[in-house]
Amino acid sequence: MGLFKSQKPRRFSHQYIYVDERKEKLDKIEEQAKRDLGMIPPKEFSPEDIRGKFIEGTKHLKRRKESNRKPLAFGTILMAIIVLLYILRYLVTGEWKF
User: Which residues contact residue 76 at a Cβ distance below 8 angstroms, ignoring those fewer than 6 apart?
Assistant: First the structure.
């Protein structure tokens, strides 16, 4: 039966044709030497850089950031759940007493 045993498509494999690996390696060594000598400031890792890339990649996060609207606070959500549970209790038992 061909229904349960379908072939998987070939994986995409892109290999560069015009790449000078030696030049890239030399550029990397040169940059590292300049950083060691203090000619270029050291590379710093910043989590904000990564976080910004995710926001730029999605439309809804970008819109939320532009509107400066914050998501609901934990306390607000907790109070809403408690009120809904209280209403559910009233619907089940028919009493407003706690």
Answer: none
Amino acid letter, residue 5? K
How far, in Å, CA of 21 to CA of 83, rounded? 64
- pLDDT for 69-94, tens place per residue? 677 788 889 999 999 999 999 999 88
Displacement of CA 82 from its chain's centroid (Å): 31
Contacts of 34 (CB under 8 A, 6+ apart): 40
Provide the whole-model pTM: 0.33
Would you list the domain boundaries of the chain?
21-93
